[in-house]
Design goal:
Layout (H helix, E strand, L loop, with lengths): L1 E2 L2 E2 L3 H9 L16 H19 L4 H8 L3 H8 L8 H11 L4 E6 L6 E6 L14
Helix pairs in contact: 2-5, 3-4
């Protein structure tokens, strides 16, 4: 689509570009018809990123806490679910939330189940809670 001599991508073109595993910038989009496994892996990635941001850690500090390279942390932060297994992401998440529990919760708008994370140390947005 062109407006004021500027080309714009339509929604399908944007989704296609952002979902491409070779996309180099920003977060990687998740397909609307992504599998439960990919949606869960994406949520784990976003929870790890939220932990880093909420605790004001640099990428290097977050990578060190997870005992991974900064490049690997960058891919997690982008939500690149194709580069990681569910087990690997869960292993990393457990390092920041060792008392975490996973549960399946029904979405209210379309009754599709999704994975919920519960931890006495990290709230539902991935933020670490104060402990005494």
């Amino acid at each position: 689509m062109t407006k004021n001599n500027v080309d714009f991508l339509d929604d399908e073109e944007i989704i296609e570009e952002l979902s491409n595993p070779r996309y180099k910038g920003g977060n990687i989009g998740l397909s609307p018809d992504a599998s439960l496994e990919d949606r869960t892996k994406y949520r784990l990635c976003k929870s790890i990123l939220a932990y880093q941001q909420d605790n004001k850690l640099t990428s290097a500090q977050a990578a060190k806490k997870l005992a991974i390279s900064e490049k690997k942390f960058y891919e997690i932060a982008r939500g690149n679910v194709n580069r990681f297994s569910f087990e690997e992401l869960l292993f990393y998440f457990e390092k920041i939330a060792p008392n975490c529990e996973l549960g399946v919760v029904e979405k209210s708008f379309d009754n599709t189940p999704f994975i919920s994370f519960s931890s006495p140390q990290i709230n539902h947005k991935g933020k670490q809670l104060k402990t005494n």
